[in-house]
Write a structure and sequence with these properties.
The chain is built from 17 helices and 13 strands. The protein is an alpha/beta fold and 465 residues long. The strands form three sheets. It has a six-stranded mixed sheet with strand order 8-9-10-11-13-12. It has a five-stranded parallel sheet with strand order 2-1-3-4-5. The structure holds cytidine-5'-monophosphate (C5P) (2 copies).
Length: 465
């Protein structure tokens, strides 16, 4: 079926439901997906009971109520249909809105899914929040204000990373938000912190691309900003969002010259930025990537409900708690990244691996791995293994890589699904970012097996070229 038919079917099932249980993932895409569906349903007079879980796995299944409500799974479910089948959840009581690679239930139960991976190129880079928005938009055109949350979910799941902008359906959603006055699309620089951080800090933090002489060198960034007249003094702290169009042009061309003078391509310097004009200036809510980090800070530190409240519009007590979560999240992620770089990863041949033990929660090691990778060997996927605090018999695995490695034949989702099944665990995710849980005790054999599978993918990839 096409996406339009599938969205229509989902809307029809929902219209006939008396009550809904909404089961969602704890990251930015999961929280925004939940907030979109939840608001669309509540506005339509349907009662919703939200349940956030860190992943669908045997131990979290108990959080799904055994009742007669319609179960809507957002940002998870497609890869764990085996668990739904095992729990005897009837197919006519389930809608899955997802973008993870689907894995069929072993006994063939056909759960109804709207999954962006089913509908070709236009949808390939549309996260679960994007699918949730298409559904909300079908339920009522007045849900157009929710496009902003869909943009946050898409950016949080890195849907703009490869092309330095949202593409296909995700871009259409951003435009829809713009037409409702909720999103402002601007061509800007491919950096983080454009609403809240001083420009010299933003530039010196840039790692995609690395700007020679500027990345890692805030004083040189100040010099460049003074030379271009963008900064008026050494102590200036102007943000990117405070620049006018002319200043953006001057900055972009100065940075491009800096790249070219050092023999680097300026290609990835410019990116499309998604600002939210109805939020207070100089707050993390003013642009999609900072908003997404705030939601991740809440969800990945077990407070998804605070993130949900922010999505619903709370700018009081819950928002202040979210600000606190964000500060904490940033400092621990920085520490984790430094830990990985200082401890060093083990070069296994085709992957690089590190075990962080019980130092950091399993919900954040993947983010740290992704950030550390930019300062490690970018040609080898990184694997981080850690303990799971409330499940002493389990280990959590997170893997990350880059597009250029995917083009050489690597698929991390395939590797982790296969390897974890061999060790009685379960994994899933995307080709570029995947995760798994495995039983303790097999860590060395598991990592070796992952290395071997990636090695095979590299070998097959080079043959196919
Ligand atoms: O479960 P989920 O897909 O939401 O996990 C999101 C995580 O995967 C994020 O940490 C994000 O960095 C990573 N990811 C990525 N590139 C993608 C999709 C997800 O790095 N294309
Ligand atoms: O946890 P982490 O951010 O590393 O997850 C990366 C991707 O792998 C996410 O999309 C997540 O939903 C997925 N994942 C999964 N099964 C697991 C662990 C993670 O599908 N057991």
């Amino acid at each position: 079926m096409g996406v339009v038919e599938d969205i229509n079917t989902a809307a029809k099932i929902i219209n006939e439901a008396d009550a809904v249980t909404l089961i969602s993932h704890i990251d930015a895409d999961g929280i925004t997906s939940e907030a979109i569906v939840s608001q669309a349903l509540t506005r339509a007079g349907i009662s919703v009971n939200p349940v956030f879980i860190r992943q669908l796995e045997p131990l979290t299944m108990k959080h799904i109520p055994k009742d007669d409500t319609l179960k809507i799974f957002t940002d998870l479910g497609s890869g764990q249909q085996n668990l739904l089948e095992e729990a005897k959840i009837s197919a006519d009581k389930v809608i899955i809105l997802d973008h993870h690679i689907a894995q069929e239930a072993p006994n063939g139960t056909k759960y109804f899914q709207v999954n962006s991976q089913f509908y070709g190129e236009e949808y390939a880079k549309c996260s679960a929040a994007g699918i949730a928005y298409l559904l909300a938009r079908k339920i009522s055109e007045s849900n157009k204000d929710l496009a902003k949350l869909a943009v946050v979910g898409n950016i949080g799941d890195m849907m703009a990373r490869e092309n330095c902008m949202l593409t296909g359906a995700a871009h259409w959603i951003a435009e829809d938000g713009e037409s409702a006055g909720k999103v402002k699309i601007v061509r800007g620089i491919n950096c983080y912190g454009l609403s809240t951080r001083a420009l010299h800090i933003v530039l010196s933090n840039s790692d995609d691309p690395i700007i020679p002489g500027i990345s890692g060198a805030p004083q040189s960034a100040i010099k460049l900003l003074l030379k271009t007249g963008i900064y008026k003094s050494q102590t200036d702290t102007k943000t990117f969002e405070e620049l006018n169009t002319e200043e953006i042009k001057i900055l972009s061309s100065a940075l491009a010259q800096q790249m070219i003078a050092n023999g680097e391509s300026p290609e990835r310097l410019i990116a499309e930025i998604y600002f939210f004009p109805d939020e207070t200036i100089k707050t993390p809510l003013r642009n999609a990537s900072e908003y997404a980090t705030m939601l991740n800070a809440c969800g990945r530190w077990t407070k998804p409900k605070i993130g949900e409240a922010v999505c619903f519009g709370d700018r009081g007590i819950k928002y202040r708690e979210a600000e606190h979560m964000l500060r904490h999240h940033r400092s621990i992620i920085r520490e984790l990244c430094e830990y990985i770089l200082e401890t060093g990863v083990e070069d296994m041949g085709s992957i690089q691996a590190i075990n962080t033990g019980n130092r950091y929660p399993d919900t954040i090691v993947g983010i740290g791995a992704g950030m550390a990778l930019s300062k490690l060997n970018p040609d080898k996927p990184i694997l981080v293994m850690c303990e799971v605090s409330d499940e002493p018999d389990l280990l959590k695995i997170s893997m990350r890589t880059y597009e250029k490695v995917l083009r050489r034949g690597v698929d991390l989702q395939e590797v982790l699904v296969k390897a974890s099944a061999e060790f009685n665990g379960a994994g899933g995710g995307h080709n570029i970012a995947a995760g798994a849980y495995i039983p303790k005790g097999c860590e060395n054999d598991f990592t070796r097996r992952v290395n071997e599978l990636v090695e095979n993918q590299f070998a097959a990839g080079s043959k196919n070229r």
